[in-house]
Design goal:
226 residues; mainly beta; 10-stranded parallel beta sheet; elongated
Length: 226
């Protein structure tokens, strides 16, 4: 039996003041900073901005779907009921961010750096975390089918009550990571989960996947050798 690793570190929450400026921020296009604001029911879909900085913000029901915010930097942010579907945020740098009840289907975070991030009750299916660096990140009760972590570095990343069916971890490097009550059916790159801690029911459910990865054929109970 492998040595039990230390528990994964818990992400630090956003550092937000009790009140933020609720003045509408206007169009994000062409801006390089959005600082200390609270936005509600605002749409910024299909926008293109490079190098935007979002610092100390609270977003509720904000639509950023289909936008191109490459190299965006997000620090101390709380997002609730937002639409980030198909957001292109390649090279993003995010720290102390909480996202709840939001849609992140198809989000592109390749080559990004994510630290102290908590994602709760969200759709994160078809998302790309390829070559991403994730540290102290928690996914809680998230639908993450067919998401990819190819060549990503995961340190203290926790997946709790998530659906990672057909997710891809090929080439990923894991350290102090946890998988609890999480569906890993048809996972790609199961051998690259080395360094993770997985609860026993999930391990039992993965027996067929482990066997396939090791090239072990599974016999029926009534099957005998010729």
């Amino acid at each position: 039996m492998a040595r039990v690793p230390r528990p994964a570190a818990v992400p630090s929450p956003p550092r937000l003041p009790k009140q933020l400026d609720r003045t509408p921020a206007g169009d994000l296009h062409g801006q390089d900073r959005c600082v200390e604001v609270e936005l509600t029911d605002v749409g910024f879909s299909d926008h293109r901005t490079d190098g935007l900085r979002l610092d100390t913000i609270k977003l509720t029901r904000v639509d950023l779907s289909g936008s191109h915010l490459q190299r965006v930097r997000v620090i101390d942010a709380d997002l609730t009921d937002c639409n980030l579907a198909n957001l292109d945020a390649r090279g993003a740098d995010a720290s102390r961010v909480a996202i709840a009840r939001s849609r992140l289907t198809g989000i592109e975070l390749r080559d990004g750096s994510l630290a102290d991030l908590t994602i709760t009750g969200c759709r994160v299916d078809l998302a790309s975390f390829g070559s991403c660096r994730l540290a102290r990140v928690t996914f809680d009760e998230c639908l993450m089918t067919e998401s990819t972590f190819i060549d990503a570095e995961l340190d203290a990343v926790r997946f709790h009550d998530c659906d990672l069916t057909r997710a891809d971890f090929r080439g990923a490097r894991l350290r102090r990571c946890e998988f609890r009550r999480t569906d890993l059916s048809q996972l790609e790159g199961v051998a690259d989960l080395r360094g993770a801690a997985i609860d026993w029911p999930t391990i039992v459910g993965l027996a067929g996947v482990w066997a396939g990865a090791l090239g072990i054929a599974v016999l029926d109970d009534d099957q005998t050798s010729p």
